[in-house]
Amino acid sequence: MKPPLPRLHAITDERIARRDDLDLIVGQLATAGPALTFHARGRTLTGLEHYHLAIRLSADPSIRPTINDRLDVALAVHAGGVQLGRGSLPPAEARRLNAGWWIGRSVHSIDEARSALAEGADYLLAGPVYATATHPAAAPLGVEQVAEIAGVGLPVIAIGGVTAGRVRDLRKAGAHGVAAIRALWDATDPARAAQEMLMAMDDT
User: How many domains does the chain have?
Assistant: First the structure.
């Protein structure tokens, strides 16, 4: 039986993966406990770099990281789940490797959400919800489309421009939880930033 799907997802990128203070921030964010998961993500990382990132995100035994796309790395580090993009294996094929994983699919529209449901995904990472520097050319979905995607019937993790002040609106729209990059990793106090997001979810 899988543990509950974490409500707060701290996503990495290549810049974060190579930060000198990564281990320090991992420890601060990990104070949120199993309500949080780390995503080992970095499209231009080598396989070895991705593996080393996943190991560093696994430092706290209460948090099993989620691995983006690299199923070999997910198997090697005994990850709690995998996040699959458009070019990844279908969720049903990933499940053959480990039936205990939470298997997420990244989606950017209601049609992609319906396809992910048909393919057997466990949850959806939907975004960008708001304008974000991470994907400056992407048109924001907006809260209304998050609600539409949540209507597909899978748990939705909203990503893209998410801040603690926006969490309540996303939860009211039906999101199970939220994901963030800069709002967590670049926060002056990462532990507090994580707690503020989780408290905002508890208030709805």
Answer: 1
Q: Could you say which DSSP state residue 68 is in? A: E
Residue at 103 is within a domain? yes
CATH label of the domain that carries residue 73 = 3.20.20.70
pLDDT one-digit tens code per residue, 10-46: 999 999 999 999 999 999 999 999 999 999 999 899 9
110-147 pLDDT tens trace: 999 999 999 999 999 999 999 877 767 678 999 999 99
* Cβ–Cβ under 8 Å, residues 164 and 200: yes
Q: Which two tokens stand for residue 139?
A: 């048109």
Six-digit token string for 166: 């926006």
Report the SS3 class of residue 148: helix
Residue 105 inside a domain? The answer is yes
Residue 144's CB: how many other CB atoms inside 10 A?
Answer: 9
